[in-house]
Design a protein that fits this description.
Order of helices and strands: EHEHEHHEHEEEEHEHE
CATH architecture: Alpha-Beta Barrel
CATH superfamily: Glycoside hydrolase/deacetylase
Radius of gyration: 18 Å
CATH class: Alpha Beta
Structural class: alpha/beta
Strand content: 5-15%
Number of strands: 10
CATH topology: TIM Barrel
Oligomer: single chain
Number of helices: 7
Shape: globular
Largest sheet: 10 strands, mixed
Distance between the termini: 41 Å
Length: 276
């Protein structure tokens, strides 16, 4: 998708989140929603997804995962209009996470397990899977500085592209003292290792018909499952807007889960550590 820059955007609507009537949603069951791959490259689909999610959830109670220089061709500090849009979203209450630096995996994976993950779990975008601690920390620090300059506040944490971390990335997370991190199956505090949420992320795939069908089936199962999981995480990506079937599933999933759960921020999870 070609890089797109916004004209000077208006502030997002200041709509407060309307809590549900007492007893309608169990307060101990949470829904956490995020938009991945936030970059000037995907300015239009990101805006579409943000508007859609805000309308369903009743307010800007979701997170954005920001890539400072997507694939080396879309630096945030060279896209001032998009940076202003990010700050407007942050001012409205959207949580902002650092999401890698390039979002592109250029590592030579000598470890067999890492090579399999890089090949089958992501389309060459597991940037932090093969980095050593020094390079991982460097990218985290310069990425955090760039995003924080844009949004005018601290980031909420770090989430690796494709949710893939190698040993170097884990060491760098601790050194950089990010408040929160997330992978496919948990949210944790890097400084202490305390886990604040467990369970897989519901997400969608647009790269192939088979992946799309599989992700639609998983989302349908998530809607039908009993509410035994304390926290449900839902993540969307810019490519999701390219298929009507995915958008329909996203809408249905968010509405269904939001009716049964308290829509929450990642920061709300910190007080609810779960046993290791």
């Amino acid at each position: 998708m070609a890089q797109t820059d916004f004209a000077d955007p208006a502030q997002p609507p200041e709509r407060g989140f309307e809590p549900s009537p007492a007893g309608k949603r169990p307060t101990d069951k949470r829904l956490v929603v995020s938009i991945h791959d936030v970059s000037p490259t995907f300015a239009v689909p990101i805006a579409m997804l943000a508007e859609r999610i805000e309308a369903i959830l009743g307010g800007p109670r979701f997170a954005m995962l920001v890539v400072p220089d997507h694939w080396g061709v879309a630096r945030l500090d060279r896209s001032p209009a998009f940076a202003r849009r990010l700050r407007a979203w942050a001012d409205a209450g959207v949580e902002m996470f650092l999401h890698g630096w390039f979002h592109r995996d250029a590592s030579d994976h000598r470890n067999a397990a890492s090579a399999l993950k890089a090949r089958y779990m992501t389309a060459g975008e597991g940037e932090f899977l093969g980095l050593d601690a020094v390079e991982a920390e460097h990218r985290m620090r310069i990425g955090r500085d760039m995003v924080e300059q844009a949004i005018g506040r601290s980031v909420a944490g770090f989430i690796a592209p494709a949710w893939l971390y190698g040993p170097g990335a884990h060491a760098a997370l601790r050194a950089c003292e990010f408040a929160l991190a997330e992978d496919h199956f948990r949210v944790w505090q890097p400084a202490t290792g305390a886990i604040v949420a467990r369970g897989p992320v519901v997400t969608w795939a647009s790269r192939s018909a088979a992946r799309t069908a599989s992700s639609l089936a998983v989302a349908a199962a998530a809607r039908a499952l009993p509410d035994w999981m304390p926290t449900m995480r839902v993540a969307v990506h810019p490519g999701d807007v390219t298929k009507d079937s995915l958008l329909t599933s996203i809408d249905r999933t968010l509405r269904t889960l939001a009716e049964r759960r308290t829509v929450s921020r990642y920061a709300d999870l910190v007080t609810e550590q779960v046993p290791s």
